[in-house]
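Subject: Sanity check before I submit

Could someone independently write out the structure tokens for this chain? I want to compare against mine line by line before I put it in a report. The sequence has 560 residues.
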Amino acid sequence: MAADTDDYEHYEAVVVGCGPGGAAAAARLADHGVETLVLERGTEAGSKNVSGGLIYAEDSAPYTIDDLFEGFREEASERPVTDYYIHNVAGNSVKTYDLVDLHEHDTDWCDAVLRREMDAWLEQRVHEKTSETGGGVLTNVRVNGLLRENGEIVGVTCDELDPIKADVIVGADGVNSELARDAGLMDWEEPDEWFQGVKAVVDMEPDAIDDRFDIDPDEGAAHLFSGDLFEDVRGGGFLYTNEDSLSIGTVFHLDSLVEQEANPHDLLDALLTHPLLAGWFRNDYHELEYAAKLVPDSKKVAHREPYRDRLVLVGDAAGQMQAQGPIIKGMNHAVTAGALAADAFSITRGNNDPAAAGRRYARMLEDSGTMDKLRPRRYELSRTVGENDTVTAAVERVLDSPVGSVAVGNPIANRLLERAYNSPFLVSMLPDTKTGYVSLPTVIGEQHGRTIQWDNEIEPPSLEQRIGDLTYDTDVGNPHIELRDESYAASGAAVTACPVSAEDFGGGCYRSETVKTNGSEETLVSLDTQPCVECGTCAIVADTDWEHPRGGKGVEFREG
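---
Independent answer below. Compare away.
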């Protein structure tokens, strides 16, 4: 945007988004006495946010969320995760490994969280702190782009407010960041750079959680799932215990979802209805909320220089989501990044070079070791071989042969596999192939697993029921997505990949229809944005113009 900006309101710092990364940045800026305005798109922080979700405090991290917000664990989180397992599934045969060694590596503590409650609590604390330095938090405001002056970023533009100038802009606006895209720091071209997660929050009494998961009231459990449970889609499932509910979901490579034409809600249901979960549900299932989001694969997209002029990016907006096998960490890295970005601005405050804070921030990410966690050099070296199609095919043939079964099935291999699962070094080298997610776990389950005899008789809600149970404030007449190309070749992948769409389902966002024109048939795609959960999947797999709804509009998550 080119304009005379002299009359625009000015703050030292503008933070866009009040999730963990934005909250950390705003709190630390306030600690430095910086006048800070926080702009949040939701009706309340957390109403637009979804995560699995576990938040870690790493021993090696320069900042953790309880460093910045006193009382966080007592007031804003669910249960501390004390038990951690992975289940290798082959039909009804399951081999479980204890991953507590991996879980506790470099870990001070780890808590399960629900984003609506956590982020709303953070918003209140942030508003208190930033109000003391002349700022505050404004909700229901969508920042739609960057304000430029003579080609240089000097502020932000909004749907609901006049443009605002700032000495530094912290883009913490999530995986679908409009600021990152406007600055040319993010694109949506490659599905293999993203994961898609879907999640159900399931009601369960605290006493039932304690009993069924064999934990005390001040303990929690995390369970991961891989193998043939999800057919050939690369990814896995998770279950985390909250105070009085369970977070159960699946996370898959987006390109694999597209290739397999898999429906995300069906894959979630495959997990929910597996016999292993019957022992926890006891045929009592009440789903509180269905949700979805995209997740950046930091190994491929974490930005080494996440800044442009006065803009710095933190969290998902900078691709800072670590997903390496059983290691799933994102919110803690967003907190670290947000606090470091604030420190970088404090150090360079008053510098006439608009990129001074950004350069210092990028250096601090490297020096703190954060970037090496997000983009491990071991993976960069191993992927050249490990993700080669010829190598993958050869490994698959061996696993599928009697030789592979014998090699995996002996007791020594069993002990080595458990050690390998608990090795941060080996996990960080895991290639993104079918072998690690599907083939090897399936063989492990077949060779070492026990047969689960329970009957799982629950019936998850239909997709129509799940959409109907969500809360929406539809922005009538202002669709936030426009379909540019309605041909199935260009946009048909969204019909199955969209978590609120499916073939032969007429109530979702994307639908396909075969039409006859001049004696020939053509399959076309149509779009209805009303059921949208704003995950951004279609922006990558379909030919669309995609943006967030206006402030407060669209879906509102109650759990997150």
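---
OP: Matches mine. For the report I'm noting this point. The chain is about 35% helix and 25% strand.
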